[in-house]
Amino acid sequence: MTAQLRLAPEVPATPGPTDRAIIETRRLTVAYGSKRALDTLDLTIPAGRIHAIVGANGAGKSTLFRVLLGFQAPSTGEAVILGRDSQRLDHQDRARIGYVNEEHSMPGWLRVEEVVAMQRRLYPQWQDARWRRIVGHFHVEMQQRVGQLSRGERAGVNLAMALAQSPELLILDEPTLGLDVVAKRAFLEAVLSSAGESGCTIIYCSHQMEEIERLADNLILLERGRLMHMSPPDTFCERVSLWVCDYGFAAPRAEDIPGVLQMQRIDGLVHFLVLDAADDLGELLRARGARRVTRGAVGLDRAVNAFLTRNHAAPQVESVP
């Protein structure tokens, strides 16, 4: 049985008359010898809301960002960001894009006020009120040298500067990596409080599913350089269900159960995580020897993990056309 993940109606595959694609790739491919970091990727992200890009290491997320920001050329295909070819971005185009990555690197010898003064001169749409409000989440002293800031404080300064430039698009690439619980909470609250007020589209990349659950309106799953699924996170979770079975004798093989993403044995019970379970799956499990069958819901973390680590000989998932 072949399981197919399709775009949910809430996230149109092609922007309609009133929608505007803020990012669009067409058969985008980046190859390193025989290996493809991006493999004929077709991706359309509409303007507005918070879009989370998720994938295992090597899925192509970082390569995608480098191409979108014009730091790397594609092998074939094209990428369009804010209506412009990503390989032809000028200074004015870049002023419309904010970017925060996991490094939060800034000149350590400068004071925070000096770094901010430089940023203010670079971006004509700079908003001091927004800068002060966002950096206020992190209790940063303007006279401090950057090298004296904690990792969480540097993350806050970077986020505040990126949003103060009034971007139309904000890309956050693993921005909370290495932050403690307090700093991470402050960062997420700053993102949420600013998302609606600023009106910018946010692309959020993270391996932390609790962050995705809290922030994202739209979940984008990449695998081996291809788009595998795009929908609201709740929609994805609804398609993955947990079936707990008590077998008196040998349990069936995972490949014999339609739609199985993952099979685990926990405390003598067999747990099946199933994609798009058939209406009669419970009856099938009983026919295969289960004495008791219980169906349950699955959280985003477990659903995404099961999907990304599934046995590729089991249910195959087609790329979104």
Outline of the structure:
By secondary structure, the chain is of the alpha/beta class. It has 10 helices and 14 strands.
What does this structure look like?
Helix 4 packs antiparallel against helix 5 and helix 5 runs parallel beside helix 6. The chain contains ten helices and 14 strands. The N terminus and C terminus are likely disordered. The chain folds into two domains: 211 residues, P-loop containing nucleotide triphosphate hydrolases (Rossmann fold, 3-Layer(aba) Sandwich); 70 residues, Alpha-Beta Plaits. By secondary structure, it is α/β, with parallel strands linked by helices.
Query: How many helix segments?
Result: 10
Unreliable sequence segments: 1-18, 313-321
Give the helix/strand class.
Answer: alpha/beta
CATH class of the largest domain: Alpha Beta
In the CATH hierarchy, the third-tier topology of the largest domain is known as: Rossmann fold
Topology:
Blueprint: E1 21-32, E2 35-46, E3 50-54, H1 61-68, E4 76-81, E5 84-85, H2 91-95, E6 97-100, H3 112-122, H4 128-135, H5 151-164, E7 169-173, H6 181-198, E8 201-205, H7 209-215, E9 218-223, E10 226-231, H8 233-239, E11 240-247, E12 260-266, E13 269-275, H9 281-287, E14 290-296, H10 300-308
Parallel strand pairs: 3-8, 3-9, 6-7, 7-8
Antiparallel strand pairs: 1-2, 1-4, 4-5, 9-10, 11-13, 11-14, 12-13
Helix pairs in contact: 4-5, 5-6
